């Protein structure tokens, strides 16, 4: 995250609208929040860079407003665009680095740390984070034993969204196992609406399908090993997961319009195919952000006419909880890293997260956030599920990988899984292709 398609999957805006907003924000030099009178940081400025556009950027600025009111610091938000690594590198080279960056990929955070760009979290920020976050989030923010990244915003990527009217018409209920999920999908198709709208044009959605199946089927230990390329993609567990995924991909009852249609469908369109005015499928798998798109774009009310159930357990394993998230880091090269660290200390507590939770379109991994802070029961339930998963949460595997393998359009894992969607007849051959690309990207 946040490759071009990843931005699309996280925002409730269409791609075109998001682009216009991003360009507008960039042309205006980003948003600013003026200082309150007095305050320990009065007269100082903190510059924050992040991928957020549209409503996400607007709501994050509410958090920055609260920091300003508390400390007196002026804040400036600068849109980074999708390629955070390139943006930050160019800013450092030009002597105009932001103080704080919201990093959307574990792999990018590791890259920044290895470049020597990051300041370790202060003792206060680390202590607060230790009191509010499950240890797994510290692990994902740590590089070579040093804690750099504070996870502030999260995504719950183990939710399957559906149109209740389609389920009612087909006479089906929410499935509790993967086998039941496929059975439910075929019953939906028999009633006149294919099972899944799959956004195959956006390769990242296919990695998410694989990751949920793999985590449940192979277990967290294998998942961690594969994420670090400590086992090869030719491992039997990978072939088994691809075989399971292939059963879905090859079934035209389950893939709305078949593979060819799926490969021409991006993420926002996949949501439209379930919740738009002319529905073409009964379900769409993706993260909690589906509910925001259904609400903002198609007027659906999450929990009423846009519902979800947890991604079900596969072959007797545990139900998976795959997450993504944005970590706040402080750059050494920023003009005011000390004030930047004070912002991170603020973000580590529940107050900052509660502000965005109330505005909507947000999940926090912070266990101290009052569930009542969330604006609706559906988001509240999703947030509770994420927090209660504790250390069983696993970060999006492709976001942990080098971008050349896990995050590049038309290359690596994205392209290979798109090819597998087109022809899922050879799981073993697909695993071999994945391993060849992973070996090049990881350098081993």
Automatic annotation (TrEMBL):
Transmembrane intervals: none
InterPro entries found in the cross-reference section: Bact_solute-bd_prot1, SBP
Record bears the keyword Transport: yes
Gene3D superfamilies: Periplasmic binding protein-like II
Organism, as annotated: Streptomyces globosus
Family to which the UniProt record says this protein belongs: Belongs to the bacterial solute-binding protein 1 family.
One Pfam family cited in the UniProt record for this chain: SBP_bac_1
Protein name, per record: Carbohydrate ABC transporter substrate-binding protein
Keyword terms: Signal, Transport
Residues spanning the signal sequence: 1-27
